[in-house]
Design goal:
- The protein has 275 residues and is α/β, with parallel strands linked by helices.
- Helices cover 38% and strands 22% of the residues.
- It has two domains: 133 residues, 3-Layer(aba) Sandwich (Rossmann fold); 136 residues, 3-Layer(aba) Sandwich (Rossmann fold).
- The protein has ten helices and twelve strands.
- Strand 7, helix 6 and strand 8 form a beta-alpha-beta unit.
- It is globular and about 55 Å long.
- It starts with a strand and ends with a helix.
- The protein binds 2'-monophosphoadenosine-5'-diphosphate (ATR).
């Protein structure tokens, strides 16, 4: 039986074992997928022991995504751009490859699952931490007409833009939003929702046709979701779909087949609402 794991600290909350067990059932394979709680000081040793012991692949969650990028022998372009790895794969020659499926997961959820167009649209990404860095390249690849990145600490947003094609990104602090037209798609990649807070986005940024997406998720929706509803956004979404889609992309890297996600996304939403 092939062995997989998710490394995090803490990791007890991770839904990944549940999701991958369902992918395995849906694609008719038998695999073992477990949680491994590794403190930062032990992360590299734990990962190397896992792969030396025959592990096939691993997901990596907070706080280890940067460390995973540093330890991977081969870093794929999606991960290099993000500076973070969320998927490790054992290569036949014994090396470990690092990839990042977060951005693909977000774009698949928006475009394929929810029919949200990004090409030629005005897109606002809020936040400039690890979560924002993980999805920025995938958003750029969809060729939005405008991609604006704003952050509480403006220098971090500018640094993200400079590390890419700065000419294609409007980056800065929230004051950048004072005199701009509404956005078609607004994505919250800040950690504000985790504290029940919303980033200070002016109300005029949301129009009746806007789609608002929070990378975070919570039973009944996040604080940002509630704010977006109050502004009258057309569609208000949270990150459960992205969670399932990034996992499906990891599964594809490991097994060569992309599992179906619709039923699992519905079940995960129900699980979340049930607490
Ligand atoms: P993550 O990996 O989850 O992105 P991070 O790298 O610590 O974590 O980044 C957190 C992001 O949320 C940052 O963009 C942070 O803004 P700063 O760079 O100014 O710290 C943002 N953030 C956190 N709390 C926020 C709040 N209450 N309002 C607005 N932005 C917030």
């Amino acid at each position: 039986m092939d062995h997989y794991a998710v490394f995090g600290h803490p990791v007890a909350h991770s839904r990944s074992p549940w999701i991958h067990a369902r992918f395995a059932a849906a694609t008719g394979v038998s695999l073992r997928y477990r949680r491994i709680d590794a403190a930062p000081a032990c992360f590299e040793i734990a990962v190397r022991a896992f792969f030396a012991g025959g592990g096939h692949g691993a997901n990596v969650t907070l706080p280890h995504k940067h460390a995973a990028c540093a330890l991977a022998d081969v870093v794929l372009p999606r991960a290099r751009g993000a500076g973070a790895v969320n998927t490790l794969t054992a290569l036949p020659d014994g090396r470990i490859a690092g990839d990042n499926t977060d951005g693909t997961g977000l774009v698949v959820d928006l475009v394929d699952n929810h029919g949200v167009g990004l090409a030629g649209r005005r897109v606002l990404l809020i936040g400039a931490g690890g979560a924002a860095a993980g999805v920025l390249d995938a958003l750029l690849a969809t060729r939005p007409a405008v991609l604006c990145v704003v952050n509480r600490t403006p220098e971090r947003a500018r640094a993200l833009a400079t590390a890419r094609d700065a000419a294609r990104i409007d980056a800065g602090g929230f004051e950048l939003l004072e005199r701009v037209p509404a956005f078609d798609v607004v994505i919250n990649a800040t950690a504000a929702s985790l504290d029940g807070k919303t980033p200070p986005v002016p109300a005029h940024c949301i129009a009746a046709h806007s789609v608002c997406y929070d990378l975070a998720y919570a039973a009944g929706g996040t604080a940002f979701n509630a704010w977006a509803h109050a502004q009258g956004a057309a569609q208000v979404l949270q990150g459960t779909g992205m969670l399932v889609e990034q996992a499906a992309e990891s599964f594809r890297l490991w097994r060569g087949v992309r599992p179906p996600t619709a039923e699992i996304r519905t079940r995960l939403d129900r699980l979340l609402d049930a607490g």
